[in-house]
Amino acid sequence: MNPISKIIRWGIIGCGNVTEMKSGPAFQKTEGFEIVAVMRRDAEKAADYAIRHGIKKYYSDADDLINDPEVDAVYVATPPDSHKFYGLKVALAGKPCCIEKPLAPNYEDSLAIHNAFSNKNLPLFVAYYRRSLPRFEKIKSWIDEKSIGEIRHINWHFMRPPSAIDVFGEYNWRTDVNVASGGYFDDLASHGLDLFVHLLGEISKASGVNLNQQNLYSAKDAIAATWLHKSGITGTGSWNFGCQFFEDTVTIYGSKGKITFSIFEENNIVLETEKGKKELFIAHPENVQLFHVKKIQEHLRGISVHPSIGLSAVHTNWVMDQIMD
Q1: Which residues are CB-contacts of 10 (< 8 A; sequence separation ≥ 6)?
Q2: 304 burial class (0-12, 13-18, 19+ CB within 10 angstroms)?
Q3: How much is the pLDDT for 1?
Q4: What is the pLDDT of residues 229-261, one digit of tens each?
Q5: Of 116, 68, 59, whose CA–CA distance to 89 is shortest?
Q6: Buried b (16+ CB within 10 A) or exposed e, 267-288
Q7: What is the pTM of this model?
């Protein structure tokens, strides 16, 4: 696609919670972007969103939004089981697209989405926005500068208690095996695994064990994994959604030190070497996808290449499938 010089008019499919603060306002705050239409199957909710956010058009049919001549690009913010359905429609319409993560519930569907856009030479972005956040860019700079020498190993341990929704059995698409077979792993671990590839390079091997320990819902709730980056860096991870306490700790071990941080907690990033310990607090923007969206604008205008595109998201899906196999 040629660089775009005019205002790029976006339509959003699925204006739910993620679009209220995380992403929707980021599109509105990015110079050269405008949201002109939103879609939700519930027309009343679509109208409410449009009114509250100052958007002139709303639809209850995705085809109407996708084929609207005033919509230049589409952001798909629905649950992952519908990403392929909507993504292929956007590709057929010949429009750039940003899709929420994970790109699809499995590798095969994610590859099909990527191929549909690639075959038409259309930009496809995926909302792994941590690749664009300043706190993780700082960690990448420490790695690239060899602040801890040669990287040897990365470990992520994540655990949390079941939510009230889990305990009382209320429906949640994130734990519906038909929508996300890995449950919260699909929704949350995908962020970290994708970031690790961004920081340390692609993964050549991955495996894991998974089960449902609590029997509170149909998806898996306990996963443990090992993997190998193509560079020779080893990795381990464990995710459990039925523990008493919350913990979210990533440690990258190098030949001359280590880096410690969290994927979801907005706390200090820590660099430890023989010279001592350095701690930095780098706040997220009010709308956490802001830098991700700004980089979409730069990509579409030919200024830079976005760090989270369809192909990288396909690789993340492949890694997750290997762990959940």
Answers
A1: 27, 33, 34, 35, 36, 71, 72, 73, 74, 75
A2: exposed
A3: 39
A4: 999 999 999 999 999 999 999 999 999 999 999
A5: 116
A6: eebebbbeeeeeeeeeeeeebb
A7: 0.96
